[in-house]
Amino acid sequence: MAFFLETLIGGLMAGMLYSLVALGFVLIFKASGVFNFAQGAMVLFAALAMARFAEWIPKWTGIENMLLANLAAFIIAGAIMFVCAWIIERLVLRHLVNQEGATLLMATLGITYFLEGLGQTLFGNDIYKIDIGMPKDPVFLFESMFEGGVLVNKEDVIAAAIAAALVVLLSLFFQKTGTGRALRAVADDHQAAQSIGIPLNRIWVIVWCVAGVVALVAGMIWGSKLGVQFSLTTVALRALPVVILGGLTSVPGAIIGGLIIGVGEKLSEVYLGPFVGGGIEIWFAYVLALVFLLFRPQGLFGEKIIDRV
Q1: What is the tens place of the pLDDT at every residue in 18-57?
Q2: What's the domain range around 218?
Q3: Which of 36, 163, 164, 285 meets the CB 3.0–4.6 Å disulfide criterion with 241?
Q4: Alpha helices (H) in the chain, listed in sequence order
């Protein structure tokens, strides 16, 4: 039982991080109808910016406190992502309003390669470290209930807590603020929102900025766990099944989908892997996504699209 709980908790931690990346897809798609294939590149670019500025700031300012250096680097990286969001909306999205989905997808692919190239030019292409002080030592829980306790990684717990806190803040932002309600109105009906005076361009800038902050937090956490390297762009590919499972238009769906896939990957690898030769964790999420595409393409919480002719 203790081993099962360890696997389950590990899956929930991984699923929360998947949800964080998937959230970027959902936010942009809800507000603009654009499937942002550049979300992985945004995660990489934000993580590179934070890692490099955390390295440069102590050299430039003489600050020895790494916590202050990381905080300053986070703020600068956040500002850079805001600028990127404004440039993307001004130079790309504004000129592609009401275009075909394939056109918008190709535009985000172009943004992907541009951000990857720009990140390599500005920040280099080595493997960099983000050290935000998260403890990496494991801890044993429930020792009174199970012999030897349940082994949990402190870093995973803190990372999942950060991701959960950001999800809660975003939910409050969407539900309780005027800007959040405007975002939801734009998501429901672009033309109706525009007819009552909601400026679409400003809303799109805001939602890309929010997605940039989500990418920065995701990049910071993944960079702290795995190091900042160009393989971080593949994090977006791991989040695609989460979006398909939860629904492209559902914020709760991104969270629930991430948790389901995180737990499913871990449990299937441990309990089914020995029977199929291992490696099931790599393809489990994609097979599950394929099943949903066949039988429920809108996902668990997505809106069912009905075309009347």
Answers
A1: 888 888 888 888 777 778 888 888 888 999 999 999 989 9
A2: 2-295
A3: 285
A4: 2-32, 39-61, 66-91, 101-123, 154-176, 178-188, 190-195, 200-226, 235-246, 251-271, 273-276, 280-295
C-alpha span between 262 and 19 (Å, rounded): 9
For residue 244, the tally of other CB atoms under 10 A from its CB is 28
pLDDT tens per residue across span 254-300: 888 888 888 888 888 888 777 776 678 788 888 888 988 888 888 88
Give this prediction's pTM. Answer: 0.84
Confidence of residue 148 (pLDDT cuts 50, 70, 90): low
User: Is position 303 within any domain?
Assistant: no
Q: Which two tokens stand for residue 295?
A: 């039988």
Domains in the chain: how many in total? 1
For residue 154, what are the contacts with CB-CB under 8 A and spacing of at least 6?
Answer: 134, 135, 136, 137, 138, 139
Strands 138-141 and 150-153: antiparallel
Contact 173, 23 (CB under 8 A): no
Residue 71, judged by CB atoms within 10 A of its CB (0-12, 13-18, 19+), counts as middle
Give the DSSP letter string of 61-109.
Answer: H----HHHHHHHHHHHHHHHHHHHHHHHHHHTGGG-TT--HHHHHHHHH
